[in-house]
């Protein structure tokens, strides 16, 4: 990659942070690994003897109703990976029963309702009863092992109950984020062939009501195969109930006993589907196995987040996305600790909401996306008035975290007493794949650091398809070995699975992300390869330019896209949101450009800077650069579906800004 900017930040500009001393001293017990060297040793074993490594962990962390003999079979090249082949187990037994038997009064769920003070706690004993009753209800509705159930629920404890009730009877849950439109819901229900949908009368988020049942009703007009809708009463709104089809959750669960014998499933039986959008085509129903997925959740919960008995774990992700599946539900419950289910938003009723929750419940691990951190950083440090002295781990997920935001997280939220863990993974990987281990791995702001056990990263030259060896290099991130929690297929479209992930570079799993490996082997995620801009032969990461822009004190958020340019191939266009009260003029725009020139180099300087009120983001906070790319390309009439944006009205405002500046 000659002619590229330095692949990796210069060593002198990057500070290495060791696990904070105060965290080590305040630890209630001790870290699961004693040293970084121990990680290195175990990691090596996980790569050279994966079967030995994973068999031991699978027997330690999962409870089996039937043991396995074959640890792993199949290959990446053939796309037929199977783990713990002959084994049988039940996910809800692993997440609930075994903890309830030991300590029924232990709190499984702390529910923080949208309105502060309106939540409640659910113990493992109660969870077992609720899951069992719902399992009876589903069975009575004709749901059988291998059937899918669509779940369209807000962030309430019943969402967890619903997931676990499905798994208790061997059914496959298919959660659709309760912010998706009725059309998106319909497509997912139809694709997954779900015959039962679980929802609420309404949802409540950030003080606003969401008509979930109404959306379900609309979707179901075009889902002829749906037999029943189970409705949990959340707000008591006056809603339509279709006789014979719609049933009240509270009336149904009343009818059944508080115990349901868990149905054992095979290791490879699917636990769930989760739809995810690719760069092309309709959303894919990514299918995860039962045993391998659960092991990934438990292993990363234990080693990445350093979960210990008695911890109170708070992941701010929604159960409608993979982060919610793995780190609100499965990781904490597999390990028998308390998980916080937060229904609201970080800005309601004010910007201290997260910090108040952490303080009140003595949260030990907090996990959130940088987009929320940027919002809260922008709101001002005075909102972070809590001590939060139990915090040991501060996780970041979903997008690169700019060093500046990382530093704020570390200093202002963690007060230097908690470790920031920038975790890289995907819906398809099931659990964290490149990530520090809290208490063990040294970190560098902006780097997801090192591979998790069993993950063997490779950087591939996108042109030749050859692996790039050595350090201080950059390429497309791929994995060379199968790992237990990798997605097994795309529901009903195995060919698409093969083409998207396993046939791009034969023998590798293709992530779709660009990455660099620095002189110490640390990984720096550059963003999706379709977000890479090439200016005069310089490969630029949009994430890198964004990080540079955000270093400017006036900028709160930035999104960079490549635009076709006659002279340079592609040119960089930047969209930025600025602090309230900032006067926007030509001089300021020049400053922004200078910021990038200074931080990365003149070749990276944006050709245009658009100051916009907000960026187009999905409800999970991902910036939709695709929309920005269309706008700057003058293809506003081809924006596609923008209903999944958290605020679709920003699009018109952005178009206006771009037009004005031309
Ligand atoms: C894509 C996966 C699984 C978490 C929620 C998103 C980006 C994820 C990081 C990170 C830089 C990240 C990648 C990846 N991504 N984590 N720590 N640093 N980028 O799941 O919707 O499946 O998206 O999110 O581009 O491919 P997802």
TrEMBL record:
Its EC number is 6.2.1.1. PROSITE patterns: AMP_BINDING (PS00455). GO terms for molecular function: acetate-CoA ligase activity; AMP binding; ATP binding. It comes from the Eukaryota. Residues 39-95 form the Acetyl-coenzyme A synthetase N-terminal domain. The keyword RNA-binding does not apply. One of its GO terms (cellular component) is cytosol. It holds the Pfam family AMP-binding_C. It is an enzyme of class 6 (ligase). Keywords: ATP-binding, Ligase, Nucleotide-binding. Residues 97-482 form the AMP-dependent synthetase/ligase domain. GO terms for biological process: acetyl-CoA biosynthetic process from acetate. Residues 544-622 form the AMP-binding enzyme C-terminal domain. It catalyses: acetate + ATP + CoA = acetyl-CoA + AMP + diphosphate. Belongs to the ATP-dependent AMP-binding enzyme family. This is Acetyl-coenzyme A synthetase. It comes from Sordaria brevicollis. The lineage of its organism: Eukaryota, Fungi, Dikarya, Ascomycota, Pezizomycotina.
């Amino acid at each position: 990659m000659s002619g590229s900017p330095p692949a990796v930040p210069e060593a002198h500009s990057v500070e290495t942070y060791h696990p904070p001393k105060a965290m080590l001293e305040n630890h209630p017990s001790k870290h699961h690994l004693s040293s970084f060297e121990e990680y290195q040793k175990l990691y090596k074993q996980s790569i050279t003897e994966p079967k030995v490594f994973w068999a031991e962990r699978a027997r330690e962390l999962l409870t089996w109703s039937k043991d396995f003999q074959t640890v792993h079979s199949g290959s990446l090249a053939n796309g037929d990976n199977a783990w713990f082949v002959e084994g049988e187990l039940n996910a809800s037994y692993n997440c609930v029963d075994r903890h309830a038997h030991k300590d029924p009064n232990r709190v499984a769920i702390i529910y923080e309702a949208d309105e502060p003070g309106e939540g409640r706690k659910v113990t493992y004993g109660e969870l077992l009863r609720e899951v069992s009753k719902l399992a009876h209800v589903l069975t009575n509705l004709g749901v059988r092992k291998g059937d899918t159930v669509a779940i369209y629920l807000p962030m309430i404890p019943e969402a967890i109950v619903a997931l676990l009730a499905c798994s208790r009877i061997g059914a496959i849950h298919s959660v659709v984020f309760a912010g998706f439109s009725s059309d998106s819901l319909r497509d997912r229900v139809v694709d997954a062939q779900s015959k039962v949908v679980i929802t609420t009368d309404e949802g409540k988020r950030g003080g606003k009501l969401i008509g979930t049942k109404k959306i379900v009703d609309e979707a179901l007009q075009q889902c002829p195969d749906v037999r029943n809708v189970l409705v949990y009463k959340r707000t008591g709104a006056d809603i339509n109930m279709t006789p014979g089809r719609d049933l009240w959750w509270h009336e149904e669960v009343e009818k059944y006993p508080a115990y349901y014998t868990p149905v054992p499933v095979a290791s490879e039986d699917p636990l769930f589907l989760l739809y995810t959008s690719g760069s092309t085509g309709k959303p894919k129903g990514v299918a995860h196995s039962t045993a391998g997925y659960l092991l990934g959740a438990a292993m990363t919960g234990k080693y990445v987040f350093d979960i210990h008995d008695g911890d109170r774990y708070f992941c701010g992700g929604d159960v409608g996305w993979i982060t919610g599946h793995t780190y609100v539900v499965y990781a904490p419950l597999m390990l028998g600790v308390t998980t916080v289910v937060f229904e609201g938003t970080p800005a309601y009723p004010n910007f201290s909401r997260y910090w108040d929750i952490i303080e009140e419940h003595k949260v030990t691990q907090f996990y959130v996306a940088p987009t929320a951190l940027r919002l809260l950083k922008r709101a001002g440090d005075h909102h972070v008035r809590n001590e939060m002295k139990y915090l040991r781990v501060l996780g970041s997920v979903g997008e690169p975290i700019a060093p500046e935001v990382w530093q704020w997280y570390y200093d202002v939220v963690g007060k230097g007493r908690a470790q920031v863990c920038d975790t890289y993974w995907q819906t398809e990987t099931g659990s964290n794949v490149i990530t520090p281990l809290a208490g063990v791995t040294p970190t560098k702001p902006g780097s997801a650091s090192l591979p998790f056990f069993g993950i063997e990263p490779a950087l591939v030259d996108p042109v030749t398809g050859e692996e790039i060896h050595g350090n201080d290099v950059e390429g497309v991130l791929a994995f060379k070995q199968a790992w237990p929690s990798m997605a097994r297929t795309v529901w009903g479209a195995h060919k698409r699975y093969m083409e998207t992930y396993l046939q791009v570079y034969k023998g590798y799993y293709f992530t779709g992300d660009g990455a660099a490996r620095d002189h110490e082997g640390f990984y720096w995620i550059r963003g999706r390869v379709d977000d890479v801009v090439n200016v005069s032969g310089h490969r630029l990461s949009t994430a890198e330019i964004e990080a540079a822009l955000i270093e400017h004190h006036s900028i709160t958020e930035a999104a960079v896209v490549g635009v076709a340019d006659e002279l340079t191939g592609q040119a960089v266009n930047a969209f930025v949101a600025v602090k309230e009260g900032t006067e926007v003029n030509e001089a300021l725009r020049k400053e922004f450009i200078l910021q990038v020139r200074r931080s990365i180099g003149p070749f990276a300087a944006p050709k245009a800077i658009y100051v916009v009120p907000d960026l187009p983001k999905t409800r999970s906070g991902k910036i939709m650069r695709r929309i920005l790319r269309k706008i700057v390309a003058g293809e506003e009439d081809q924006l596609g579906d923008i209903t999944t944006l958290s605020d679709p009205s920003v699009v018109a405002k952005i178009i206006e800004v771009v037009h004005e500046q031309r």
